[in-house]
What we know:
Elements: H1 2-16, E1 22-30, E2 44-48, E3 51-55, E4 59-61, E5 68-70, E6 74-77, E7 84-87, E8 91-93, E9 99-101, E10 104-107, E11 114-117, E12 121-124, E13 127-130, E14 136-140, E15 143-150, E16 172-175, E17 181-184, E18 188-191, E19 194-197, E20 205-213, E21 217-218, E22 228-229, H2 248-266
Antiparallel strand pairs: 1-20, 2-3, 4-5, 6-7, 8-9, 10-11, 12-13, 14-15, 16-17, 18-19, 21-22
Amino acid sequence: MFNLKYILIISLISFTLQDSHCLVTSTECYDEEPTTNAGGIANCEEAEKGVCYECVYGYALSSNQKSCIAFENCYILAEGDKNCKECNYNFHLNSKGQCEQSLCEHYDEESGECKSCYPGYYLKNKECKKITIPYCLHVDGSDENKCSACLKRLSDPVDGKCVAPKTWVIGCRKYDTEGKCTECRSDYTLKDGQSNFNGCSNGEKKVEYCDMCEAGFTTENNNKGLCIGFDGTKDETATTGIHTDTDDAKGIKIQLALMAIMLVITF
């Protein structure tokens, strides 16, 4: 019974510390709420003169761009609006007009073979394999043990490896070859190796979001700002997506932390 109690405590503490595949978050200020009926078109985020240019997550543009239709992973529909014409990032059309997740970024249309993979993967024997070098987006030619490009905030590879900071700095735009922050985002001020948020003006809302995902992950395919793997990997319990200070997720996380503390005191 003693062991069971402590397993429960450890499990709760572990859950409160669970994170997505986001390495560091950042903060921005917005002076207006995102719309879901731009130009009077339901589920449209951007429109002009009755034409929609961007639908909300989970919807695709109709072939005439006059409406947004529920269609997973599709950007714009083919004529008749039954099949997809162009898929969202990291998805490719299959023979049935549906969008399938893919690790291949560029195909040779004639041969049907993959020519290059999405960041975090490399091509080997006509298949996309996960790069094992931490923080590496691309390897050098066919040498899977030598990185040629690291995560965008990091410096160029040193001896084929990526140099990451011991602690990721919120708001940092660029790190040097020693892992130190050398440049911050425009809404932050760099001081003593740290980026200090300048704050929001009156009427603006502070929004936190993931600023950088692990290699092989992206925030492109969802409206929550969560890091989802090109292979479909995701963390359903992650709380590091786009959120404000009043998010339910933050409240739940705090409640679980308090429960863990109470259990420690009780036992």
